[in-house]
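To close the chapter, one final illustration. This time we ask the reader to focus less on the individual chains and more on the assembly as a whole: which components sit near each other, and how the overall shape emerges from the parts.
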Amino acid sequence: MQQPNAQPMADGVLRETASQTAGPYVHIGLALDIAGLPPREQEVWNRMAGDEAQGERIEVVGRVIDGNGDTVRDALLEAWQADANGEYQPRFDLDAPFNSFGRTAATVENDGEWQFLTVKPGAVALANGRQMAPHISLMVFARGINIHLNTRLYFEDEDDANAGCPIFNAIESPTRRQTLLARREEGDNGPRYRFDIRLQGEGETVFFDF
Amino acid sequence: MSDIENRRFVPRDRNWHPAAHTPGYKTSAARSPRQSLVSLQTPTLSELSGPDFRHLHMGPHDNDLLLNFREDPQRSGLPIGERIIMHGRVIDQFGKPVPHTLVEMWQANAGGRYRHKKDQYLAPLDPGFGGVGRCLTDEQGWYRFRTIKPGPYPWPNDVNSWRPAHIHVSVMGPAISTRLITQMYFEGDPLIPLCPIVQTLRDPEAVATMVGRLDMAHSRTMDCLTWRFDLVVRGELQTWFENQR
Ligand SMILES: [Fe+2]
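The assembled structure is written out below.
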């Protein structure tokens, strides 16, 4: 007879559907243009801020790099960030000036670089009165990644905010915190932040579980 | 927003999902972190909120792969292959429907060939088939696609590795925390247990969560077979006690 209290899951609690890699052809489903498919009426893509968006317009670029030091050319990324006032805009609406959600992908044409066109997010106030430093949550999908990786991009020019951010400082190793800092450079149309994601080995990016 | 901050989801069981490093699936070797994940004991608004796609404009055939692609728009012609309906519900771990959430899917054609610049497999492209679909779940969490059954295809992993017939499925769920990409396999396919990607899962019950079942009751006479595939996303816990901090 089954021992009571020995069930790993309480009665009636289902297991989550298991994850599988998005695979090399993820673009057919989530990045049609890169697969070579015609666009549909609207696509979810990398221009999160339109011309009317409030705040500092920035370009965010980077590469995903594997354990051999090679660029992952089939990576797909999703971004989730607050607007310039530190507010999330959950309603996805391409007619709105700003969307909190975006997608991008590394492309062979761009030598494996991905890009978001957005605004710099504001600090996000938490209910307990603390503030999280400006950040962009990123989800990384690719062939060879069995379950997507969650990370956060922080800004190197936000030292004070970063020093006070409860999540940034929840990373025990100060050395590893540095892997989440995007570097500011001058872009073609204003500031550009560069954020390389290292999947494995030296300088391995911090990935979160939550 | 503070209601959202009080949300809690059933923690993701990392032993249930595939590990990052699964040497049998060779590409994972160099693409898997070696460091442990950093656990957020208290997830924040950034993890507990997520996009609502009810205002994303979709076309009338976005969920109908029999009609949503023609290589030459002047010519008609249905895709080659077994006509099927793939349908099911998105529910959470407590069986609660997840309404109005975005479900996206992509797949190979009946010959096992993807319409993708990078797919060079011998099997031909089908001029009547693109291979992408999307829809929102309804009030009860139901979604539905009409398509053709994809073919299995060979891929470079072991000397002779074949993917079982599968449809890639992406679901957002209520928050960034529930985001999930998986694949639906077809009940009874002898290639399922042979596949190195399926074998990234350690528990046969976890594999079973990805197997679509033949749903004869919803099949259409003289038209198409139906496959049922429910997606379970992380359950939202009730918060009975408020923490003081
Ligand atoms: Fe596939």
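Chain B touches chain A through 92 residues (CB under 8 Å). The first strand of chain B starts at residue 8 and ends at 9. With these observations in hand, you are ready for the problems at the end of the chapter.
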